[in-house]
Amino acid sequence: MERLDLDLSRPPPLPGTVEECHRVIEALWRALGEFQQIQARVEELEEQLALGSDNSSQPPSQDSTKKRAERKGKRPTGRKKGAQVGHPRHERALVPAEAVDEVRHYFPHGRCECGGSVAVRGFRPHQVFDLPEIRYRVVEHRVYEGRCGCCGEKHQGRLPDEVPRGQMGPGLVAWIGLMTGRYHLSLREVEALLEEQWGLKFSLGAISQSQIPLQAWLGPVYNQIGEAVRKALIAHADETRHYRGRSIYWLWALTTDQMAYFLTHYSRGKGAAGELLGDFQGILVTDRHGAYNDHPQDSHQYCWAHLIRNLERIAGRKGQAGEDGERLLRAARLTVHYGKLWQQSHYPSDRYRRRLERLKALFRRELEQAAQRHGDNKTGRSCRKLLDDFPRFWTFLDHPGVPMTNNTAERALRPYVIWRKTSFFSQSHRGDCFRPMILSLVETCKRLKIGVYQTLRTICAQGMAEGEVTFRLPLPEPQPLPVASP
């Protein structure tokens, strides 16, 4: 670009010829074009600096210090910390007398200070809970051998089928699986806890090897969860990063309110999503990730929480784009508000449904106007993409009972995300297979309110004794969706 050396302290001299005028005008146009490019780049960088968990898919743990301070800046309520006036008391219920291990009696003195005798009329129970001294249990199985006195044939005793062939019994293998899969301890921490709590010393290799048969025993229950969740009427899907060493894989989740099924895959594309969904024909709730878009549009619900974060990003832009984003954001928040009221009314309310239909028309009209107004720039492209996805945001209107958000799947993935931050990831194909299996069992048991340890112990005992696990979880049958009144 031709540089113009102008002295701004006095008016510049007028060009002497027409050619000089054209040259100055062309230089000014070029300077204006470069200025607009720089301005657009500055706005883009400012938008990236403003990104956080409230307007993008970035997790809260990666928010900047300023974003965290803004998020924590809650308006004080003026109330003291702790339980408030009128809060119901929560007290530990007394254990029944037949379940008490030991009873100690404390009587008052038999004689009062006034000289009279004291008659006992009752007692006040005070129960103290404590942990017993822990010691592991060792059973020695002696296998004898002998020889025939006539022919000299050697004979040897045989261990019963229910006796483990290794040194770890079903309770210990189940406990190691619980510590790693439920409480996300590393193998070194499990090794240390075994010695600290139980006085048992096992090598890292032995602890790792104990998960090999457990993985095989978990297979039938894992397949049961997968088959059941694919038969559900409503399911939520999501995915997050899974690391094997330095390689990036993906952990996929297909969940309901009662079940959670996990799958590891090298891809985040449609092939992996198809493997996760299988023959699922119900209503699918997801974020806007395109890998799920092979699922039929009329039975696919997009998450409104993700939509609001996308609109927050547009609303944070300057000028007309920010104004359009604010209007779209208000319409989206009103939609979520009335959608919740409609769900809380159990869907017979025509008033809330009519308001939602009006909001649907308003939202489409605002999107169309914004897409036309902004043309081919970033905001215009975002609005046109939302118009393409528009039917998938309103499936809940045609199928009452469908949630408007994908929180069920995101809550299922959160324990794994925490586990991923506190471990050395997966180091082998065996680890890639074990993690989704143990996570599926743990999350499903939590949702069914079933003890994870007792379930694992039953599975391990069956696997060791019979070689085949016949245990199955009490998974619920699919329930019909509520129907809106005509």
UniProtKB/TrEMBL annotation:
UniProt biased composition (Basic residues): 68-90
Low complexity bias locations: 53-63
Domain of life: Bacteria
Annotated segments matching region Disordered: 49-94
InterPro entries: DUF6444, Transposase-related, Transposase_IS66_central
Domain spans labelled Transposase IS66 central: 165-431
Limits of the DUF6444 domain: 12-92
PANTHER family given in the database record: BLL1576 PROTEIN, PTHR33678:SF2
NCBIfam families: transpos_IS66
Protein name from the UniProt record: Transposase, IS66 family
Taxonomic lineage: Bacteria, Pseudomonadati, Pseudomonadota, Gammaproteobacteria, Methylococcales
